[in-house]
Amino acid sequence: MPSPRLECAVRYGLFVACEDEDLGADESDYVSSVAGAVVTYIGSEGEELGPYPDEDGAAEREVGSLTAFIVQTRRVIDERFSLFDVCDAHSDGLADMFAAVFDNKSEMPREELGIESLWEGLMCLDAVTVDPAYRGRGVAVQAVKTTIETFCHGGTVTATPRRCRSPTRGGRRSTS
To answer: Is 85 strand, coil or helix?
Structure first.
């Protein structure tokens, strides 16, 4: 029998480049990184309390994590930078995502993909991990949905296909 859905919260860290006012922006200044910890609370009797503990002394338990990159597309266009150059300056992963989704010359979404060109942001979900004991309970779906709504509502979202890794086996993966 499947486990019941687990209500959880995502605690975010947002990492944004600070520009040098004397030098101006360069391509790497247009990508922000998001790191999220997916958490729930455990009561004193070991029961799952969800994201809003109603018991004093409830312990926070991290049950998953996610990382994403946000390209400030409107700013890239307004300041006349190349979207490809911005993605390429950040990482091979973002450059590969660009090549798969966008036409290199026009920098518009590839016609065959049928993606509307909404330029309110571009987010690439890089990794989502869920502790094995919490898989199959909607944790990853909730975390991804919350992240999209929080950081890229109305924008274009891509995901990097990778094998999932458990935070308890093999540690965290480098995203550089």
So the answer is: helix
Instruction: Name the residue ranges covered by the structural domains of the chain.
Output: 5-71+120-159
Select from 53, 94, 47 the least CA-distant residue to 70.
94
Q: What is the CATH number of domain 5-71+120-159?
A: 3.40.630
How far is 4 from 151, CA to CA, in rounded Å? 28
Question: What are the pLDDT tens digits along the chain (176 aa)?
Answer: 456 777 788 999 988 877 666 565 677 788 999 999 999 887 777 777 766 666 667 788 899 999 999 998 888 888 888 888 999 988 888 888 888 888 888 888 888 888 776 566 889 999 999 999 888 888 899 899 999 999 988 888 888 776 444 333 333 333 33
For residue 138, the 8-state DSSP code is: S
Instruction: Specify the residue for token string 């990482």.
Output: 91
Query: Residue 133 burial (CB < 10 Å; 0-12/13-18/19+)?
Result: exposed
Tell me phi and psi for residue 4, to 5 degrees: -65, 155
